[in-house]
């Protein structure tokens, strides 16, 4: 039986914003996602609507990461039409279900996003190869509210990461401190060499990219929006990354502008 050529070498056609931050940085170009993200950051958006919006946004982001990076394999599988037509066989590429994947819950803003990714992966991959880890990390701030570091208060890591795709679904990429800490923890303190490590964000800043790109050179970064709203009007007219050192997206206490404002607090109705 002849194979349909259209299914034999599938190439995902990405839609991304042009930038100069490097090939491992992916800024998605989606009017739909930007629309939902605008609703997410609106002052009137609270529970329970905010959970629904985060779910829709991470569904799309997870799909995009899978299509962009996950390995494929060739299959031949009968469909329910096989009783009527011997040609009722799909022969072509699919996502390889025999790949280990770890979704890391970066509590607390990352708890819902990680659960969403973990749940979806259990449908797509062989479920025994999918794992969710829990990493308890928080900002450390000084008396003025400025971020001075990160504090790891605990973790629950369920095994090694040998030949695994490791996902960090953390909504806000502000300073980059959390992702840098987690990236090096998994590389240096958890056994095994990963296949890929991927940060998945709703919003990031130029400052985040400067820190993470330097300290985590093998990390793939995906985001739905880059915020550099505190940059000058001249900078905002340039392609993102062209004048990287002059771009600014962080307030004096390291919150993102325009941003979404304290997403972890709103997601959990916890403001302490």
Quick recap of the structure?
This protein is of the alpha/beta class and 272 residues long.
Please give the number of β-strands: 10
Q: Distance between the terminal alpha carbons, to the nearest Å?
A: 64 Å
> What global shape is seen?
globular
Q: What Rg, in angstroms, do the CA atoms define? A: 20 Å
Summarize the structure in words.
The chain is of the alpha/beta class and 272 residues long. The chain has one domain (14-268): Rossmann fold. The protein has helices at residues 31-40, 49-69, 111-124, 177-189, 206-215, 233-236, 263-268; strands at 25-27, 72-78, 89-95, 100-107, 130-141, 147-156, 164-169, 172-173, 196-204, 219-226. The strands form 2 sheets. Strands 1, 4, 5, 6, 7, 8, 9 and 10 form an 8-stranded mixed sheet that branches. A two-stranded antiparallel sheet has the order 2-3. Strand 8 (172-173), helix 4 (177-189) and strand 9 (196-204) form a beta-alpha-beta unit. The longest helix has 21 residues, at 49-69.
Overview features:
272 residues; eight-stranded mixed β-sheet; Rossmann fold
Give the secondary structure arrangement, pairings included:
Layout: E1 25-27, H1 31-40, H2 49-69, E2 72-78, E3 89-95, E4 100-107, H3 111-124, E5 130-141, E6 147-156, E7 164-169, E8 172-173, H4 177-189, E9 196-204, H5 206-215, E10 219-226, H6 233-236, H7 263-268
Parallel strand pairs: 1-10, 4-5, 4-7, 7-9, 8-9, 9-10
Antiparallel strand pairs: 2-3, 5-6
Helix pairs in contact: 1-2, 2-3
């Amino acid at each position: 039986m002849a194979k349909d050529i259209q299914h034999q070498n599938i190439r995902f056609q990405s839609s991304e914003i042009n930038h100069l931050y490097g090939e491992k940085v992916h800024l998605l170009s989606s009017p739909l996602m930007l629309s939902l993200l605008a609703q997410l950051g609106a002052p009137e958006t609270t529970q329970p609507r905010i959970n629904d919006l985060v779910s829709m946004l991470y569904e799309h982001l997870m799909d995009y990461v899978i299509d962009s990076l996950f390995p494929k394999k060739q299959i031949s599988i009968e469909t329910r039409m096989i009783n009527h037509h011997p040609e009722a066989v799909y022969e072509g590429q699919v996502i390889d279900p025999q790949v280990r994947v770890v979704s890391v819950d970066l509590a607390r803003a990352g708890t819902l996003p990680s659960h969403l990714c973990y749940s979806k992966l259990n449908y797509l991959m062989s479920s025994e190869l999918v794992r969710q880890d829990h990493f308890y990390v928080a900002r450390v701030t000084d008396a003025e509210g400025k971020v001075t570091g990160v504090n790891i208060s605990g973790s629950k890591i369920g095994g090694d990461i040998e030949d695994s795709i490791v996902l960090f679904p953390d909504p806000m990429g502000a300073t980059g401190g959390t992702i840098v800490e987690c990236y090096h923890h998994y590389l240096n303190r958890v056994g095994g060499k990963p296949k890929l490590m991927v940060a998945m964000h709703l919003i990031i800043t130029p400052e985040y990219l400067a820190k993470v790109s330097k300290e985590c050179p093998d990390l793939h970064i995906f985001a739905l929006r880059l915020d550099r709203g505190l940059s000058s009007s001249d900078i905002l007219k340039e392609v993102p990354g062209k004048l990287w050192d002059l771009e600014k997206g962080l307030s004096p206490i390291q919150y993102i502008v325009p941003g979404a404002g304290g997403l972890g607090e709103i997601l959990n109705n916890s403001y302490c």
